[in-house]
Write a structure and sequence with these properties.
366 residues, globular, alpha/beta, six-stranded mixed β-sheet, six-stranded parallel β-sheet
Length: 366
């Protein structure tokens, strides 16, 4: 055990040790390294680089379960653009992609590094950080583009750069991430914080009936996913008649639409909230209807029956873990990964409300 000049023993190899401030065992119990009963020596140092988007960060968290199983004495560090979405207490060190984090990561050594993003900055970090074993994507030294770091990364790399191969893919995203990282996927669930301990008051929510959250937006990038107000109104009426309690969900971008829908149908709408509170609101639902967007990832992470409306993405990409159903328009979509419809009117208008309603009924009992 290293000792400083005054003879005090220090364990820099302990998972709890911080180096800049007191560790939790010291703060809570007054333990010091020399006789600490919870000393946890690090056997593997693991770095995950998964920057964004938020949904992709969420659906990478099942990897944590396998890492904890395979390397129970490891220290896991995760570099991301959105630290707040990651579960506290499960990851030893969560860092935001900023200059201070980059500077100190480049002076450290890891046993295993996973770079799961094709962003050029992520690939450059993969190349500049020392690690015994590396998985994922590197930066092509001559052409400056993302490149597979080894053969395990080939499949996920190719489905990301060629639409034809992406359309042929029949592996869910989580399985692809596991295989990219050198593991077989065994159905590991997401690791996620419900924020149930925050004490949020949801007394305004309807009671006595199954709550069906309706996430009415999908962001501004892939607007071909949007469903019309008329379709939402029809679905809401069907749900109400069948004994469900529809609850409108969304952020600032959906606020105006949700207010219109509330006025037209009397469905519950509580407004917009910071992300942790929004997650906990979703946790109060018995089932969730959503398009492919952040709310979909949150719903799956919360283990809610998820009725997923999809048109422009490969349906094999999404694993609902046996909860809920994926529904698609009656018309074949011809706009794979396109933000605007080639035919002028999105095929989402060919997804009947009745089809979504039947999926809710099959997934959530009244």
């Amino acid at each position: 055990m290293p000792q400083l000049s005054n003879g005090v023993s220090v364990h820099p190899d302990c998972r709890h040790f911080r180096g800049d401030i007191p560790c939790r065992p010291n703060k809570e119990h007054g333990y010091q390294c020399a006789d600490c009963p919870v000393y946890a020596p690090i056997e593997q140092r693991i770095l995950i680089i998964k920057l964004g988007a938020i949904g992709d960060v969420i659906r990478t968290t099942p990897l944590l379960r396998r890492l904890r199983q395979e390397y129970p004495a490891s220290k896991i560090t995760w570099l991301t653009l959105t630290p707040a979405i990651l579960p506290q207490g499960v990851i030893d060190e969560v860092l935001k992609l900023e200059l201070p984090a980059v500077l100190h990561l480049q002076q450290r050594e890891f046993d295993i590094l996973f770079n799961l993003d094709k962003d050029k900055e992520a690939c450059a970090l993969h190349d500049s950080i020392r690690a015994t074993r590396k998985f994922g994507y590197t930066l092509h030294p001559q052409y400056g583009v993302a490149w597979p770091g080894n053969a395990l990364a080939d499949h996920k790399y190719l489905t990301g750069v060629f639409d034809e191969l992406s359309l042929q893919n029949q592996k869910p995203y989580v399985q692809e991430i596991f295989e990219l990282s050198g593991f077989d996927f065994r159905g590991e669930e997401y690791v996620f914080d419900t924020h149930e301990d925050k004490g949020y008051n949801w007394s305004a929510l309807p009671t006595g009936r199954p709550r069906i959250g309706l996430n009415t937006g999908c962001g501004d990038r892939w607007t071909t996913r949007l469903w019309s107000d008329e379709k939402w109104e029809t679905l809401i009426s069907q749900l109400q008649a069948a004994g469900y309690a529809p609850v409108l969900l969304g952020g600032e971008a959906e606020a105006e639409r949700n207010q219109r829908l509330q006025a037209a149908t009397d469905a519950a709408y509580l407004g917009t909230f910071p992300l942790p509170q929004f997650i906990n609101l979703m946790h109060q639902m018995d089932g969730i209807v959503t398009q492919v967007t952040m709310a979909m990832h949150i719903s799956i992470a919360l283990r809610k029956p998820t009725i997923l409306m999809n048109n422009i993405f490969n349906p094999y990409e999404f694993d609902l873990y046996g909860r809920g159903q994926l529904v698609q328009p009656d018309r074949q979509c011809v706009c794979f990964y396109r933000g605007s419809c080639k035919l002028g009117t999105s095929c989402m208008e060919d997804l009947p409300a009745q089809k979504v309603f039947e999926a809710v009924r099959a997934s959530v009992a009244v």
